[in-house]
Design goal:
The protein has about 220 residues and is an alpha+beta fold. Helix content is about 60%, strand content about 15%.
Length: about 220
């Protein structure tokens, strides 16, 4: 149970750190492209900046939407663009994401309307889904490995106890057998001593047998 909790905490922390990092990258891109040119060039070589699919639109007082710039992002229709902007303006937060469109946005007000930057988070969500699946498989494999190691360790730790118990049983069996023989001799000879017609020599021999077997028992004990 402790291993499962620790693995879950580690996996959750790694997932959270990755999710925060990806979100920070996309938000950083939005903060840069929301401003005026110079623009970010998609796939720019030797660039240390985040390169993600993005586009920027402006709206005027009449509600007209104009795409001012973008990087490797294609919209199928102007109505789709209008729907995205409408959904964005309907949000209470200036920086958030549109779940239905897989877009994260950042908007600022202008003199005549709004300037809105959008970035595609499809890759971010796909990365997090893949990461969560891999972490789940990794944690499951880790727990299985820990269970097998614990099972092996428990068997190895129990083996000396089982051996000790077997030796104890063997000792009791051997001791019982060794004690039964002199006890039998002592009891039989003591009964013979009660015989009234036995000679003194025989009684002396029986007493010697009793003494000998008693000494053997004492040595064994």
């Amino acid at each position: 149970l402790l291993s499962a909790v620790l693995l879950s905490i580690a996996a959750g922390a790694f997932y959270s750190a990755t999710a925060v990092g990806l979100r920070r990258d996309s938000e950083s891109l939005l903060m840069r492209v929301i401003g005026e040119p110079p623009l970010i060039t998609p796939f720019e070589r030797n660039s240390t900046e985040v390169q993600l699919p993005y586009f920027v639109v402006t709206t005027d007082s009449s509600g007209k939407v104009t795409m001012t710039e973008g990087g490797y992002f294609t919209l199928t229709s102007r109505q789709q663009l209008q729907d995205i902007v409408t959904a964005c303006l309907g949000q209470s937060s200036a920086l958030d994401q549109l779940e239905d469109s897989n877009l994260r946005y950042y908007r600022t007000s202008t003199e005549n309307g709004w300037r809105i930057a959008f970035v595609d988070i499809t890759l971010e969500q796909s990365t997090l889904q893949t990461l969560s699946r891999n972490l789940l498989l990794l944690c499951s494999g880790g727990l299985l490995l820990i269970f097998l190691l614990a099972l092996l360790a428990s068997r190895l730790s129990v083996r000396p106890i089982a051996k000790a118990m077997a030796l104890q049983q063997q000792f009791l069996s051997d001791a019982s057998h060794e004690l039964k023989t002199p006890l039998t001799v002592i009891l039989s000879n003591s009964e013979l001593l009660l015989c009234q017609h036995a000679s003194l020599d025989r009684k002396q021999r029986w007493l010697q047998n009793i003494q000998y077997e008693a000494q053997q028992m004492q040595s064994l004990v």
